[in-house]
Amino acid sequence: xxxxxxxxxxxxxxxxxxxxxxxxISGGRVFVWPIVQKLQKIxxxxxxxxxxxxxxxxxQGVPISVTGIAQVKVQGQNPDMLMAAxxxxxxxxxxxxxxxxLETLEGHQRAIMGTMTVEExxxxxxxxxxxxxxxxxxxxxxxxxxxxxxxxxDIRDEEGYLLALGMKRTAEVQTEARIGKAKATMExxxxxxxxxxxxxxxxxxxxxxxxxxxxxxxxKKAEYDMEVNTKKATSDLAYELQAAVTKQKIKEEQxxxxxxxxxxxxxxxxxxxxxxxxxxEATVRRPAEAEKYKTEKLAQAxxxxxxxxxxxxxxxxxxxxxxxxxxxxxxxKAEAEQMAKKADAWKEYQxxxxxxxxxxxxxxxxAEVAAPLSACNKVTMVSSGNxxxxxxxxxxxxxxxxxxxxxxxxxxxxxDITKSLNRSR
Length: 425
Prior knowledge:
Oligomer: single chain
Helix content: 55-70%
Strand order of the largest sheet: 3-2-5
Shape: rod-shaped
């Protein structure tokens, strides 16, 4: 008589004492009457089973060997399963329970292997493990043993089937890898080409914008340079024109003085007339012609310079149509300006030059009129009694001829010397 205890990994079974069913205690204590009651214990520890199935033929007839790992234990929390386990294993050692469970699982493992192909077992281990677990659990539960877990540990064969399968798969994987690598290389090349295309497009757009900016800058600079050069040319021409006007006024004053002096000296001797003629030639006509030639050359040079600048500006901005129009306009302006300069020069110098030439000619004409008289050895004069008599008569007639010369010159040339002299005064 006394109390007995057990740990949580054991179960006590008390039978006898007029009890129809034994009393089962899992992890606790119980009072046992000696002689009339019997106490037995059953182990509830987890048993690890190394389930080995060697050379089992699959559904394809290929022999393979499989090793599985299972965890089983006597279920002590369920009274029905504990009762079944007591009926099956009470009084047996843990080794015997282990062997019974192992053989049961090994039989179910073989049975499942015979219903599947090598590929299914090898490739879908989870399905195989689940099948063995379900079938073994339904059988072992009747023995009071629960299957905690089952895992397929190893698959092997002695015929080289798995090796061939692996080689086939390896070849497929390698092929897929090469295909994948080729596709990746192709996609990489495509993406690289697309990126390069985008880069080139961006570069072309950028270069276009830069060229456009440079063109706009060149056009603006050409416009500003043209404006500056136009202002400078206008200023230079205005200065030259003012200088020419001033020189012309000086020349006009000098000419007026010379004309007055020559008019007062018409009656002087031939030597004085010749001297005055040379003086007029040196001081008026040649400077006037030189000034006229200079003005024409300046206008021609200015026209050529404006044309060259216009053509250069037109060529620099590469706008052929506008450049030609600009050059033609500048050329026309230059030619018109040259024509105006020439017209002004002729207008300013023509009358003075012709007056100068007439004044040069008048003494010669007067000399020619008096020449017959100077060649006469004897003059016989007849008087009617009216007017002057003697030498004064001859001198008066010569003076009348000389006085009528300007009128004759006006009829020949259209220039009134007397009016021109009066204007110059």
